[in-house]
Amino acid sequence: MLKPSRKNNVRESRLLSLFRSYGDRITVRRVTRKLHSYRDWLRAFALTLLPTSKAHHCNACDRDVAAFYRFGAYTLICPLCHAVDRERFLICALDRRLIKLPAGQLEILQIAPSEKGLSKRLSQAGNLIKADFEPGRYGPDTVKIDLMDMRRTSDLDIVVLSHVMEHVPDDRHVFRQLWSSLKPRGQVWIQVPLIYRQTIEATPSMSLSERDERFGGSDHVRAYGPDIKERIEDAGFTVTRINSDRIPAADRDRLGLLSDTLFVAERPE
């Protein structure tokens, strides 16, 4: 009798983890967005395959493309590697030295490590730890870390949180946990979906559809406004805002970058 291979076991485990993660988050709005996105991807992919000049470039996979495709109104995705615009913005910020890396071999923690192009860049700067509360979603090289309890995680130089904080139940507690886990002068790079008013918290009575409508995701527990900066500073960090408009408009268009903000939180000496 044939035994199942380790690869099959890993694949099945990952599928089960994905089902547990997303099975209770499906809404009509989300399915509709996905169908429209799939149609847009087919168009962008087909155009990219044509032997014509490509006006855009994905810095996550380092390939030229004819067009990016959309998921909803606020996300542009590479038709070849599926890197989203926020990943390309962070890579661009690194390439243009808008983010200043600490000197030396770094200890880097990347939470929810779906951005493979960014992971590759980070691994060149030091020891990269890929982690998540549900590591099975991201493959066998991802370990389990709960941002709500980081007592066993310390001496980090950089923590990368790309669209993570809108999912955590108590963000102020997580910011304090992150502060304790960093070395002096360590940094947390934070990207979140931003609204242009005060942060709104979900209530227990909110349905999945209402969260999806108001927060941009049925699994989001808040929509952040600019006051996220004060929430981070309350934990003891100094915070620098890096906006995507610091990149020239022609380059933003070529890289498929939308309006975005990166918060760099540094633990003081």
**What's the total helix number?**
8
For the largest beta-sheet, the strand count, sense and barrel status come to:
7 strands, mixed
Cα-atom Rg, whole angstroms? 19 Å
Class per helix and strand makeup: alpha/beta
Please tally the β strands and state the result.
Answer: 13
Task: Kindly state the percentage of residues in helix.
Answer: 25-40%
Give the amount of beta strand, in percent: 15-25%
Query: What string gives the helices and strands in order?
Result: HHEEEEHEHEEEHEEHEHEHE
Quaternary status: single chain
Strand adjacency order, main sheet = 7-6-5-8-9-13-12
Which spans have pLDDT < 50 for at least 5 consecutive residues?
A: none
Global mean pLDDT: 89
Principal-axis shape: globular
How far apart the termini lie comes to 61 Å
Overview of this structure, please?
The structure is a single chain. With 269 residues, this protein is of the alpha/beta class. It has eight helices and 13 strands. A seven-stranded mixed β-sheet has the order 7-6-5-8-9-13-12. The chain has a two-stranded antiparallel ribbon with strand order 1-2. A two-stranded antiparallel ribbon has the order 3-4. A hairpin with a 4-residue loop joins strand 1 (56-58) and strand 2 (63-65). It starts with 5 loop residues before the first helix and ends with a strand. The relative contact order is 0.13. The mean pLDDT is 89.
